[in-house]
Amino acid sequence: MALPVKSAGSVMSASLRLVAVRNSSSKPKVAVLGASGGIGQPLGLLLKQDPLIAHLSLYDVVNTPGVAADLSHIDSNAKVSAHTGPAELAAAVEGADVIVIPAGVPRKPGMTRDDLFNTNAGIVRDLCQTIAKVAPKALVAIITNPVNSTVPIAVEVFKKAGSYDKRRIFGVTTLDVVRSQAFVSDLKGTDASKTVVPVVGGHAGITIIPLLSQTSPKVSFTQPEIEKLTPRIQDAGTEVVNAKAGAGSATLSMALAGARFANSLLRALKGEKVVQCAYVESEAVKGVNFFSTPLELGPNGVEKILGVGKVTPFEQKLIDASVPELNKNIAKGVKFVSG
Predict the structure, then answer these.
(1) Annotated active-site positions, please?
(2) Any known ligand binding at 209?
(3) Is 202 one of the annotated binding-site residues?
(4) Which residue of 27, 176, 248, 285 has the lowest C-beta tally within 10 Å?
């Protein structure tokens, strides 16, 4: 992942104007914040190949020109621009239709996503302070962990700026979906490209809840299979961290997941009906204000929250157990901004 992003507050001024428009659905601009990092570089590579993107704007605190030069040699139609350091952040996001944020520090062996909080919380806060002023209409997809807390941080920043729209801020949980679909197809011998497994809750530990009963095409699981597969999905990030032995966390699979979610937002901007899971402000589950469920996406972001649907008693137990953990994560994020 990218190096920490320094505070943008010192470079923001009263003269920074509010830009309330996006480019267009026909010539969309996508900004990647943290573009030089372990997730940002492969994410940029995948997005450069997306035919829906007209302008790929890359931002980081270091090394952005080199990444941009490299990607600009790829023969696709997306124009690439490089922006380095807080003074160039506003230009990076101005007019953006979609903003993807992988900026932050990665996990190392023995660390939880929550251990990343102090550094990554400040990064997301500072980036969102600029986005809220310069690109308040953008669809913002947050990858930076811990997502359960960084999304509430973003929301609080947008509220303070007076530009919050709950339809437009997402925590990217697509990696949990991708992993679930890969693991289920391995176990059951299904076509991985056609296997769909919704994942609800959050994006850490017990808050990651794969709804195996809703797998499509329909497959059957024994209870022992469910009880073995569920924790593997929940702990899959740690599996990668340990396998990399201190060299980083999930970067390639996360880049794919981020690109897939960004593409879903772009297709929704064009008016296509798209359903994806993501962590958003939601009343889908009683007792918690943020929750990931399948969402119907449209030109303005979340058009409809589809909820968890029909779940098994085992899945309901997991949902119930996730609520207090999510509330703790959410409160930590809110407190970080409100002080």
Answers:
(1) 203
(2) no
(3) no
(4) 27
